[in-house]
Amino acid sequence: MSDSPPSRKASRLLSWGLHTYWRFSRGMTLGVRGIVLDQENRVFLIRHTYVPGWHLPGGGVETGETALAALRRELREEACIAADEPPVLFGVYFNQRTSRRDHVLVYVIRRFTVLEIKRPDREIAEAGFFPLDRLPEETTSATRRRLAEILEGQPPSEDW
Fold this sequence. Notes:
Low-confidence stretches: none
Oligomer: single chain
Structural class: alpha+beta
Number of strands: 9
Strand order of the largest sheet: 4-1-7-6
């Protein structure tokens, strides 16, 4: 397995392929992201093996699955984290960069348990907590905007 980031063209092709499939199998796509903040003023971020940048952990809500169940599943899979109390819904965002039908629910998690240290796997190349004032340079602009909305009082956007 290579740790080198995929090309933008390969990332776009993969995203297009997945969303083409979802277009015919689902009327609308819905995703969840978790902003996991610890008491040391750090946020948990992940770097995927198939798209560039550092992101908030999360993913798609599957058919028959609630948004909170999807968030719990994604936090376990991508971060090895379990929420100790119900996550707080912060906002709903339209992710038109991905598709004209994609929405993302963003939750804030402040009380949680780290079940184990997240090790690289086929989906996650790297993961960990980062000080809010020293995020990785490759942190996505959407991730930075969500953090500014939550932590700095920036006006929430409707768009991802």
